Amino acid sequence: MPESTSKLLPKYVILILSLCLSGLAAGQSSGAGPVKIYGWVPPTGNSACGLDSKQACRSDYLKYVLPHVDGVSLEVWWAKVERSDGSKSGGYDFSKYDDMAKDFLSDSHWSAEKRIIIVVSPISHHGMNINTPAYVFTKEWAKSVGAAPLDVCTCNNYAGSGDGSGRCSNSGADTAGFPAVFEEPFKVALKNFYSAVIAHYNKVSWHSQIAYIRLGGESFPWCSGQLRDLVSPPTAPRLKAVWTGYTKEMYAYEAGLGATYPIMTATNGGQNAIVDATWSQQEASDAVDHGLVLGSQGLQMRDITAHKGGQSCSNDFCNIYGQHHTRSAILEMQTASPTDPSGERSPGSLVDLLPFAIARHANTFELFPQDVFIAYDPNYNPPGKPGYNQYHAAYAAAIEAARRGR
Fold first, then answer.
1. Residue ranges making up the domain that contains 276
2. Residues contacting residue 34 through CB under 8 Å, at least 6 positions apart
3. pLDDT digit string (tens) for 272-301?
4. Overall pTM > 0.70
């Protein structure tokens, strides 16, 4: 037995014990029903992944990973679907993403019980926004919906195309910053887009194989300090009221679109002094009141430490999932980034993270390509990075144990 494998066996034993005992600890129950394991945004063959070629990333995923997951998620960027025609919409074209889905559905490693997840991202997750159509930022579009031009903010963590100087502007000069999503120009355009999304995916031939659609991707309020200055009075409580008022309005709208599959929202809160855990709590409560299911994309080792110390987990999912697990059939979880099998660096190892989240009612996981490659692809051994040879036994066992843990 290789030395690296033998070192991991005790941790695997601990994993199995934790799955068996987690429901007994502190009076908690892991709930009922199977745990689903999905692959988050698989390689398309156009980007490197640590294998010998970009095409190998795609072919290896299909051969080695796809048989072991319950399906895959595809991220739909708003601006890739909706074209801009000057200051108005130029129409919607979903063909690129439909082709992606059909590539999986027609693959020999796909089976009837597998499902597709659609994650709709109207704004880029961080740094520079390229996901929102250009017309949304124009003065003419704002005028057409009876509003002032859309404010766009920049900050240290969301610099846009400038220097992240920490200002908001509606001049239209920098459309790559974080938009004030609660303002009419953005909100009206987004509602129109979401309506088109649901109408489209309701009628595709494979709509019965959609597990759920997550609208909004990770809807985190970047540049919260700058957004605060847009509301009156410019206080944290007022910004929370405006933001959660906007999300509640969107949940009601989304619930009325007639989707033939669950609609998920990702709650966000607890990241700083302005955006505290009560933001997530309010969003979650409003979402389930409207029949939406819940997701959270920040799972990390810090959550385990925080929970032991009586503090909130990321996005307060430990409390939220405990409170709403009887009302949200799906409770999705994604790690904050690709994991570290050694457990030495954030966000930690799946060996620790999966059972922790399952014990707190999570029943659906979207795993990064790097993590499922480590578990299942014998060709995945990138130089200087965690790979299959060293960690596949622990990761494959952790994933399969998680699936059986419910």
1. 3-404
2. 363, 403, 406
3. 889 999 999 999 999 999 999 999 999 999
4. yes
